[in-house]
Amino acid sequence: MTEKITWDKSHLLGLKDLSREDIEIILNSARSFKEVSKRQIKKVPALRGKTVVNLFFESSTRTRTSFEIAAKRLSADLVNFSSNISSLNKGETFLDTLKNLEAYSVDMFIVRHAHSGAAKYLSENTSASVINAGDGQNEHPTQALLDMFTVQENLGQLSGLKVAIIGDIFHSRVARSNIWGFSKFNSDVWVCGPTTLIPKYFESLPVKITYDMKQALDGADVVIMLRIQNERQQSQFFPSLREYRQYFTLGEDKVKFLKNTALVLHPGPVNWDIDISSSLKSRMQPLILEQVTNGLAVRMAVIYILMEKRHYEFID
Amino acid sequence: MPYQEKQKLLKDETINKVLQRISYQILEKNPDPKQLVLVGIQRRGVFLAQRIKNIIDKLEDIDMALGAIDITLYRDDLTVIGAVPLVRETNINFDITGKVVILIDDVLFTGRTIRAALDEIMDFGRPKRIELAVLIDRGHRELPIRADFVGKNIPTSEREHVVVRMQELDGIDEVLLFEKKDD
In terms of Cα–Cα distance, which of A169, A179, A170, A173 is closest to A116? Predict the structure, then answer.
């Protein structure tokens, strides 16, 4: 009858650093937080008087909005900071910006940055909690957590699954976070994409590599389609979109390899007809929107757990 | 600091008899049971609520609405107890506006849990009235809160601790008094 729940982390930097138990604590809590958004008054007073700063050095609307709504539903005060309209343009350094904000007694920073490791660097230089909302090509932990939450809700489990991640693996922090997350539950993670978009060092990760969609989709329980990130493509990684489409777009010709029960996820925004064929839109979109709803619940859970941190021992 | 069992306050069948009495008292005070909805506080309050529902449903031949709330997100003492529990499910999937809500918990102590529960219920609508039923009232209130229906009043000292065990969760029905032991 005694249930001890311990959480000793002040920051969420990536799923690589979390244990399976940590992930379970977050996903279990997220289930309760999902209910809050269904109430008539969609707000709880849990984090009254806490200040959260959305520190975004890279463009984002969905993730930023999701974190903003999550913090507000918990009654925290949230401030949005966007690098393109800030004093960074006047030459202020990253750390000086941080220290200035910290002078307002900020309790939590939610940071997105184009450089891998930015969130970690921030966490080493602040007494506030830090959530990584995407750092370069490293990790995007809350996206993977919401993917896992969606899978758990729909399939009832996270273990023993075949998870195929398809598309631009090279630039994808979502892929990396999902690899760490799902592999901790003993699921088989596959990555699939053009040879130029799967880095060599992935051979050292807990992941299987294929360049053939059929092999990736065959028997898969979960398929995570990634977006071709045109904004990050400084050089050409494949000859043409037309060619990419032929091999890697999830269309009628490839969907037939999938099991009936397979879930198709996408972190959004979807490039229809490049990532997924628009003929599958009516079939695929409901689950992708469910991911957005789940993302809010997962982010509420993460903000709450980190904020009410650091070491809990609860006797039930 | 370890706790040591001191006394068995209620056991087995007594608990069900107490719940029978509370159910009759609820009906006595509320002649129109169709107005009633039950809300149990996680976790044992939910099981107590379920048992009271079974009793009243049978007596009145009705099917009362039953909800559960977790008050974790409404607490005022997180930093004091230095411990945060898993946030459990809140489930009130019926309209409480205009209804008489019977709020049910196992042990009434400082009253802070009830304060939190009252705030939370208000966020779901505007009930006509909220009444409180508890299995044990152990005193030591820190807020002006009292129960409308009490299973058993047990004066305790601050060093004591009341533990309610229920069949549904613990495999046994009993209420025990523990006392803090100095090492």
Answer: A173
Nearest residue on chain B to A313, judged by CA atoms? B83
Å from A195 to nearest chain B CA?
44
Nearest to A304 by CA among B68, B86, B58: B86
Query: Nearest 5°: CA angle at B140, between B36 and B23?
Result: 25
pLDDT of residue A236: 76
For residues A70 and A79, what is the distance between their CA atoms, to the nearest angstrom? 13
B123:A312 CB<8 A: no
Q: Given this model, what pLDDT does residue B154 score?
A: 94
pLDDT in tens, B25-37: 999 999 999 999 9
Q: What is the pLDDT of residues B99-147, one digit of tens each?
A: 999 999 999 999 999 999 999 999 999 999 999 999 999 999 999 999 9
Interface test with A, best of B42, B73, B112 (most A CBs within 10 A): B73
Residue A177, both tokens: 């976070």
Q: How many residues does chain B have?
A: 183
Q: Say how many C-beta atoms besides its own lie within 10 A of residue B45's C-beta.
A: 26
DSSP E strand stretches across B85-128: 100-108
Span A224-251, average pLDDT: 83
Q: Are B117 and B41 in contact (CB under 8 A)?
A: yes
- The count of residues in chain A is 316
- Rounded to an integer, what distance in angstroms lies between the CA atom of residue B23 and that of residue B17? 10
Before B146, cis peptide (omega within 30)? no
Run of H or E residues at B78: helix B78-81
Give the tens place of pLDDT for each residue, A158-179.
999 999 999 999 999 999 999 9
d(CA A140, CA A187): 19
Closest residue, chain B, to A34 (C-alpha): B89
Q: What's the token pair of residue A197?
A: 């978009």
Q: Residue B183's pLDDT is what?
A: 62
Count Cβ–Cβ pairs < 8 Å, chain A vs chain B: 64
More confident residue, A309 or B78: A309
- Asked if A143 contacts A267 with a C-beta cutoff of 8 angstroms, the reply is yes
> Which phi and psi angles does B151 have, rounded to 5°?
-70, -55
Contact in structure between B102 and B26 (CB atoms under 8 Å):
yes
Global ipTM: 0.78
Residues A273, A136 contacting (CB under 8 angstroms): no
